[in-house]
Specification:
Oligomer: single chain
Strand content: 15-25%
Shape: globular
CATH topology of the domain at 3-26 and 57-209: Glutaredoxin
Largest sheet: 5 strands, mixed
Helix content: 25-40%
CATH superfamily of the domain at 3-26 and 57-209: Glutaredoxin
Distance between the termini: 9 Å
Structural class: alpha+beta
Radius of gyration: 19 Å
CATH architecture of the domain at 3-26 and 57-209: 3-Layer(aba) Sandwich
Length: 259
């Protein structure tokens, strides 16, 4: 594993929340602890958080560059339309985002995700957001609220509902938000080019939202025309939040994307 790959995985685990029902019985009543159990839980809270983070890192490690995009057929609550992977075959790249309504990390990024996705979709990128969270544990992640969310924030991409969570399992998605960028060459299947976080911004850490990880979109379109050791797209600029954010890849980024 390269240092850049390890760094990307470490940043992913600290910028996301585990998908809530992948390890839960969808029909099981929410667990309510007794007073004694509550005390024990308080003492073990740090350990539980650590184990949760480790689980996310372990599961995410199974997806690597070259992983083929799984087939799916999911409804879009806003329109009622069923979307499949085939609907995006005419695009050179596909961004798949696992998100949900309630996640604080998603809330922190959602406006900029919509803005940056719209920018690249005008250039030919296809994008889709998927919510796989259980409405048993979080009713606010249900399809009717997803439709409201998509309309409120004017998502330029379809926001799909994965009720069975089978699509999340196929992608090996374990947290929100989690980003997968796939590229394709002609009629070949979509293959994974980038998997990880949106950028280094977190709620309350005062780091500006830049969408730095989305530089991979530019990289995916330039795969065959740039040598990896010379790769540089610093002249591409995007106007976000009233400032010009320079999109560029450093040497370490290229190592992560190209190994």
């Amino acid at each position: 594993m390269s240092l850049a790959t390890a760094g990307a995985r470490a940043s992913l685990r600290s910028s996301s929340r585990p998908l809530l029902a992948l390890a839960l019985d969808r029909h099981r009543r929410p667990y309510r602890s007794s007073p004694a159990a509550t005390s024990a839980a308080a003492r073990g809270r740090r350990r539980a958080v650590l184990l949760q983070v480790r689980a996310a890192r372990t599961e995410s490690a199974g997806v690597s560059v070259g992983f083929r995009a799984p087939e799916f057929e999911l409804p879009e609550p806003l329109t009622g339309k069923l979307w499949t992977l085939d609907d995006f075959q005419g695009n050179p790249a596909l961004l798949v985002m696992f998100v949900c309504n309630h996640c604080p990390f998603v809330k922190h990024l959602k406006k900029d995700i919509a803005k940056l996705s719209s920018f690249y979709m005008e250039k030919g990128l296809a994008a889709v957001a998927i919510s796989s969270n259980s409405i048993v544990t979080h009713p606010q992640d249900g399809p009717e609220y997803m439709a409201e969310e998509a309309k409120l924030y004017k998502y330029p991409f379809p926001y799909l509902y994965d009720e069975s969570q089978e699509v999340a399992k196929a992608f090996q998605a374990v947290c929100t938000p989690e980003f997968y960028l796939f590229k394709k060459d002609g009629r070949r299947p979509f293959e994974l080019f980038y998997h990880g976080q949106f950028d280094d911004s977190r709620p309350s850490n005062n780091v500006p939202v830049t969408g730095r990880a989305m530089d991979a979109v530019e990289a995916s379109w330039s795969w065959f025309i740039c040598s990896w050791w010379l790769f540089d797209i610093r002249n591409a600029k995007l106007h976000m939040n009233g400032t010009d954010s320079v999109l560029g890849l450093r040497f370490s980024d290229c190592i992560f994307f190209l190994i």
